[in-house]
Amino acid sequence: MLKLLLCLKTFRLYIFLFAFFGFQAVMAQTGSIKGKIRSNDGSLLSSVTVSLVESGSKVLSTAQGTYEITGIKSGTYKVTAKFVGMNVQTQTVKVREGEASIADFILTDLDNMLDGVEISSSYRRFGKKESDQVAKLPLKNLENPQVYHIVPKEILQEQVIVTYNDVLKNVTGVSQGLVNGSNSFYMRGFENRSLLRNGIQDNKDNSIEVANIESIEVLKGPSATLFGNSLTSFGGLINRVTKKPFDLFKGEISYTIGGYDLNRITADVNTPLNKEKGLLLRTNVAYYDEGSYMDAGFTKRLFIAPSLLYQVNDRLSISFDAEIYQQRANDFHRLFPENSFTKTNTESLDLNWRRYYHGDDLTESKPSVSLFTELNYKISDFWKSQTVLSQTKYSNTGYRVWNMINKDSVNRSVRYSNSNYNTIEVQQNFTGDFKIAGHRNRLVIGLDYYTSRSNENLMFATPFDQFKLRGNDPKYVMISKQAVDAFFATVSPVRNIASQSTYSAYFSDVFNITPDFMAMASLRVDHFRSGGSYDVAADTTTGKYDQTKLSPKLGLVYQLIPEKVSLFGNYMNGFANNAPVIQPDGVRNAFKPSNANQWELGFKINLLEGKLNSTFSYYDIKVNDMVRLDPMRAGFSIQDGGQMSRGFESELIANFAKGFNVIAGYAHNNAYTINTDADIDGLRQWTGPADIANLWVNYAFQDKLLKGVSLGIGGNYNSKNYISQSRKNGEFYIPAYTVLNAVAGYDSKTFRLSFKLDNLMNKVYWGSYVNQMMPRRFSVNVAVKI
């Protein structure tokens, strides 16, 4: 009955929306103004404010340097383009009904140094906060009631970043989980993985290459309403925006060499295949080869990412892109200390932290192919259609080792995998920007289909062997591929085939109650269907179930000072599906999804023509309906557990003077379980550090003699990070640490040279899987611009 009511409500919504499309189609014909914006060296400029003087309408240029102002009545208008630190330009444009008038801009630096080296504009773009993907709507940061952070490619270039972990160090309140370029992070007290690319799934297990990244978008809080529960966590989500083709021939070839056998070569080449017909190609390639600062271990990766754009006409564009990986590496080093509470932290273990317990020849091969197709169609001046298809296939072949401390010894366990995975997502969005009775509405309605299938072939050795935690135990070096294969020759494999699908419909509307007071209302309905897990050996399938869930989102924004200061509040929902449980008495209990509900208040500022950006917020997240073991009946499960997560976050991005830029952030989080186990309730567990701070300060010299030279320094602070706490057994934690990095560089029109020193003070510190992080490393990057 519930499913029927949900279907009827959804059907009524779509009847209304399609009727509304028809209403908009018969509205009075209008025209539009569009164009591209470049700097004097030909680079496309994003986040440029383009204004229609007569009406006050404003838009921001996209990452591809394009803009479009729609719904303009016939007449002659003045259009201005304005960007921080550059000369304002104005053009007079004539608009006709049903036509798109073209107005391109080339902005020059305020100093008008056309023949000089101008790199300061790239630093000003550190404060870029605009994105169509964050809300699936064209909302400015000050109009959005959700907290989010954007790391543009300019920061990756400035900091000579070669691993994905280092990108997220620039985001307030994010700490890393696994290390060595992995895909594991903590936000607001919850673990998170980076599973989205261009707003849609990219679910793979290999390390993420940064060569094809235009920007990283990090949304805070449970975001299942627009992005579903399969790709988000209760703490937020991470979306990678990839580089796109444009209509100029440009390229860059880069080489980085550094300590611990680091060698990395990248190439980024943009080639218009047929500029007149709108056929554009951009290709990014990277080869990565790195040793280890421990006594064994390496990573080798080849990455190819072609992207093709076909601008069919003024209304229709089609894009295709792919990311192809071939990776072979040793597994991440893992050391679990929970069974050794005689010691309370990593320092008291008194270990040789340079020891890599896995062996050099136990490797994993993780090839993957991600395909992405996007079709954008302009239905009218008020409505746009976006159709997106994404498929990711990857396999995992090889060995994974994890180590468990057992009193004064280490139990070393091994898993062998020969498994394949395939994930597909199809999404249809209709986006509208229109007025009803003089009130502006920005609306997205969408349909989403997500499906994944895994075919796993696994063998386990738990444990494989045991050796002494300290001292010179000969067993330490007795792990090898030959020895492990001999062990697995006596083990039967575990083979499982599993599948799941989610069918979703959603909408989100931002309604201007007044020009400065906006309300957001969003709702998603998800129907989740698990095909269960097929045990190949037993020829049985278990775990089939269906669940339907509504996920709402509400927000209010008031611009206290229009386009400068806004106050916001939000309510957001996330959820996690729970499989049915067969109890010891044979009763099958169907559990509902667990819910995460967030309330948040804060403010955002954008002052001094974009030179000062800041966000401050306080949030309260409560997770309900977690499944736990019944303390009163052994072996039974009940659904009444939960988790609390409260805290505040503050971010500052500032251009205090020409060439002088600062990125800073601080976050405090208090996370603990409730009603799960009396021994641990109220105690912080493995949820990341309670206090996190990040800082990056950069100065680009403005004197003619030193023009092009820049210096940067910054780092990260993580407070004490509990791995486990128990009233009965004690605690184990990773001590607090502060790590600094520094970069010096020179940038010209034809080349760029950078020198980087990671871990400037050679600080000894540990990651969340209890292994020493990278000591001091010096690296050099040289890039040639085509």
UniProtKB/TrEMBL annotation:
Pfam families: CarboxypepD_reg, Plug, TonB_dep_Rec_b-barrel. Belongs to the TonB-dependent receptor family. Coiled coil: none annotated. Gene3D superfamilies: Carboxypeptidase-like, regulatory domain (2.60.40.1120), TonB-dependent receptor, beta-barrel domain (2.40.170.20), TonB-dependent receptor, plug domain (2.170.130.10). NCBIfam families: TonB-siderophor. This is Iron complex outermembrane receptor protein. One of its GO terms (molecular function) is carbohydrate binding. SUPFAM superfamilies: Porins, Starch-binding domain-like. Residues 334-760 form the TonB-dependent receptor-like beta-barrel domain. It comes from the Bacteria. GO terms for cellular component: cell outer membrane. It is found in: Cell outer membrane.
